[in-house]
Amino acid sequence: MIGKMTINHTSQLPIQDTYRTINHPVIHEIPKIKSSRFIAEAFPICDITDIQLFLTEIKKREYNATHWCWAYKVGMGPVTTRANDDGEPSGSAGIPILRQIERYGFTDVFVVVTRYFGGTKLGTGGLVRAYGEAADAVLQLCEPKEVVLRKEVRLAFAYPDTSSAMHCIQQFDAPIVQTQYSEITEITVAVRNSQVEALKANFVEALHGKGIVS
Predict the structure, then answer these.
(1) pLDDT tens for residues 71-105?
(2) Which of 79, 102, 172, 204 has the most neighbouring CB atoms within 10 Å?
(3) Which residues, at least 6 apart from 61, have a Cβ–Cβ distance to it below 8 Å?
C-alpha cells in the first residue's frame, strides 16, 4: 500500500531553467583591415575539454597565421569565462571577443579569431575594434539554440489513481522518460527545473496524499 506524503513549501527566487547557446559551428572572415586578415570561428561546446581540440585543429589548418586569439563562456550559475590575447597587447583581443559572446547572451560557446598580420600595426584601439568586429560578425551568423535544464522526478501510484496522475503530469513540461509496471506504476519524468516543486505538490494534491514522489 502506498503511504501518504507531505511537502513543505518555502518561498524562493524564480529558478532560471533555460540558456542560449549556438546550434552549430560557424566560420566567417571580415574584410581586411590595413591588409590584416581576421577569420572568426564560433563553436558550441559541452565543456572546456573541447576547447583545446578546436584550437589545435585551427592552428593546424591556419598554420601561417600570426595570432589565434580566443574567448569562451561555459555554464550557467556559476559561469566560467576566459579570454586569451595570444601575444597581442593585453586586453586588445580576448576581452573584445568575450564581450561579444556576452552581448549576444550565449553560453557554452568558444570563439577564435585568427589573424594574419598584414604588415601595418593597428594599435591597441584598432585591435580592440578589429577583434570585436570579427567576433560580432561570426556570432551574428550563428543559429541560436535554447537549452532547457531538467531534473528527473519519480512518481509512483496505484492503478486506480492512473487517470489523476497522468492528468497532473500533462499540466507540466515534463516528458516521460521511463515507465515501470508492477503492483504499482512508477513513472520517471524529466521536468523543467523551475517546475519541479510545483509538479510534486500538484501530484500529492491530485492523488489526495497518496503516492510516492522522489
Answers:
(1) 999 988 788 999 999 999 999 999 999 999 999 99
(2) 204
(3) none
Arithmetic mean of pLDDT, 139-143: 97
**Overall size of the chain counted in residues:** 214
2-22: per-residue pLDDT in tens? 443 333 333 344 567 888 999
**Closest alpha carbon to 136 in 33, 65, 42:** 42
Which residue is listed with cell 584550437? 55
